[in-house]
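User: I'm new to structure prediction. If I give you an amino acid sequence, what do you actually give back? Let's try with this one:
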Amino acid sequence: MNQILRTPPQPATPMKERRGVPASPPVRIAHVVSVAGSHAVAVLEHVAQGAVAAKDPRVQIGALVKIVTPNTAVMGIVSAMTMPMPGLDTEEEMGLIEINLAGEVVNDDNSKRLTFKRGVSQLPSIGDPVLFADRHDLTRVYAPPAIASIKVGTLFQDPSVPARLLTDDLLAKHFIVVGSTGSGKSCALTAILQRLLYEHSGAHVVILDVHNEYATAFEGMVERVTLSNFNLPFWLLNFTELAAALTSKDQHHDAEIEILSEAVVYAKRRYAEAAAGRVRKAAEPSHVISVDTPTPFRLSDVTAYIDDRLGKLERTHNTLPYRRLKTQIESLVADQRYNFMFGSLTIQDTMTDVLSRLFRIPNEGRPITVVDLSTAPPEILDVIISVISRLAFDLAVWSNGAVPMLLVCEEAHRYAPASDKDLTFVPTRRELGRIAKEGRKYSLSLALVTQRPSDLDPNILSQCGTAVALRLSSERDQQVIRANTYEGMIDLLDFLPLLGDREAIVLGQGVSMPMRIKFDQLGRTAVPKNMNSGFSKSWKSERLERAALDTIVTRWRSGGRE
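Assistant: Good question. You get back a string of structure tokens that encode the predicted 3D arrangement of the chain. For your 562 residues, that looks like this:
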């Protein structure tokens, strides 16, 4: 298998073991003065505020701290810092820190080792000491050794401690990567996928790439599917998808739907009879065939059925739905942009071949399929994504989860919008919603990438168990992430507008505890392709000649086909 990463991921090893130096004793910084539910308030002690502690870590928002109780050590995150009476002439200024409680460190009955667990069985009490979490605590919480995980970066609190995502919970419960334009969403997703692929050679990943970014990010591990080298036969569409491609949206829609339904069933029966080598009447098929049965059929049989019905109609009947439906079919067949779906001269049952290539079965050393949709006609983009999503779900169902798979939706808000009034992407919204709600049962995982979570269908967003949030400036988008966070750690999301490059806040089921991380730097050959090289550089000289423009126009007209 072609190696993506230049150095293999290293296991989380305590600093004491790596550097051969004794661990520093725990630093007491405060004591508890108030506890209410999952929230505690502590008074900073003088040693934590003065020059004596200059060599120790600063107390700051987002830091992990440990509250020592008689039986356990309760772990929490500093969410706020205040000084109620600054500037008064008192012997000692008083500082307060607010702590969100998240879990506790206890002795595991099986391993007999200290283990971090979510939830708090014994709440802190007044006077309990608050200590800085040392490197052993950080490793125990954020990099649990007994759970399958992948290293994607380092902790913001201590760069010597790896930041790890819990593989099974991350994938089984879906995840979303959000961030403003330029915040590094594509690089964050690439870092996650690279680590997953490095450690799991039998993976099956499909990326719906609407900007043609990822084909070069995984070196020799990619099966690149484009509209010019892949045939997605129209007969694989279910009836809803076929109707979205062929029927109008005006007052004749219902009539066209009825005509198309009858014509498709007729055409499928004709093909089935011919394939079986038997001559039967259309009303006597060898097996039950419906509009959604994934069997081949010919569009010529569909148009022949429409012509036959037109010939039998009386002049008083409305023939417009028939004529419009036939015209739409003929125009799609003639349009070169749709050759990948309607351009095949012969109709053959290639369903197994399509599934094999699209979902990498077997993966043959290329576990990731990048479907380049950058040149897909906008009016049929919904249909293409809907078909791929539905095929992934149906394959997962009919194989009883034998092919664990990850479907990655780049720019998900474009084809799974929040507004119910947008009828363009109804099939895609339904299929992605079905994966989000039921995919876990069949080992089908969903990864959404978006810069506008507020524009994403809330029913799909709510099913994402893990959120990887990079810099996000819009207050509306921040509110959506807060509303879909059930960690009790939403104070961390206040940092979203302040995050630097490659920094993120990760919350949810895919991490042991919410954390602020810095993603690992990707190598030059492992970064997603960026079409924009910068205006200041591009405008230094002329970059495009007339001959090159002619080539672009030719590709444009042919829909990307050479």
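You can read the tokens as a compact description of the fold. Here is one thing that stands out. Confidence is low (pLDDT under 50) at residues 1-22, 49-55, 279-285.
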